[in-house]
Specification:
It contains 7 helices and 13 strands. By secondary structure, it is of the alpha+beta class.
């Protein structure tokens, strides 16, 4: 599409919904003066940036001509961040101490500022003091065999999960610490969808074959692969 500004309005021409369109849309930004509350003013979405003039106690449009008057206007609301929720959401020592939420790692999890008052709780405030391996956290966040196998410290197991590689090279890597669980041999990842070059071998995996594009993509990647609906006919 094309965009042009004219007489304080913006005009959009074109469009796409699987086919090119010839629509024209005019957007006229709103005004700030009708907003009377300070909170509503700085949070408004009128198509222009509204600020609160503290001297006049009124809502005004922010522009380049006002950029030097920073002390006389309120552009954003001052909000107190709920660090408790941020900290509780962290599931590892590294993620707990690596954020800006003033979190501390306790024996059983991440807390805000301080740990529960119990004798058996060990407080960790420094990343270097984390007992859990950083590699373990990295591997747990890889959800494909190819992504997992691309890192030497990770291993794709028979449960279709990426785990930290234990032991040395050779046969020791084929067993976990819990009961000798068998692992998938290195390099035995299924062929990726993008590497499949025919409809038959494409649809034999969790992929979809686009006939008019003659390409194979992951079933979950359709929108990313064809953002403008280029694939008109497919088979799964």
């Amino acid at each position: 599409h094309s965009v042009v500004k004219y007489n304080s309005s913006i005009y959009f021409y074109g469009g796409f919904n699987g086919q090119t369109k010839s629509d024209i849309v005019r957007f006229s930004p709103g005004q700030c003066g009708q907003v009377k509350d300070q909170g509503d003013c700085v949070a408004s979405k009128q198509g222009v940036k509204c600020v609160w003039n503290k001297k006049k106690e009124q809502c005004e449009m922010w522009g380049l001509e006002r950029s030097g008057k920073k002390n006389s206007v309120e552009k954003c609301m001052k909000e107190v961040r709920n660090t408790t929720a941020v900290c509780l959401a962290q599931k590892s020592c590294h993620s707990c101490l690596a954020n800006t939420g003033n979190c501390v790692w306790c024996s059983e999890g991440c807390h805000s500022e301080k740990c529960p008052q119990r004798k058996d709780v060990k407080v960790v405030r420094d990343l270097n003091q984390c007992l859990e391996s950083e590699s373990n956290e990295i591997c747990k966040n890889l959800h494909t065999c190819d992504g997992c196998s691309s890192l030497d410290k990770c291993w794709w197991n028979s449960e279709k999960q990426c785990t930290e590689k234990k032991g040395g090279v050779g046969g020791n890597n084929n067993e976990s610490e819990e009961g000798g669980e068998r692992k998938e041999p290195l390099g035995h990842c299924p062929v990726s969808c993008s590497a499949r070059d025919s409809c038959a071998n494409c649809t034999s995996g969790l992929c979809m074959w686009c006939h008019n594009q003659q390409m194979c993509v992951d079933r979950n990647a359709y929108l990313a692969s064809f953002p403008y609906g280029q694939c008109m006919d497919w088979t799964t």
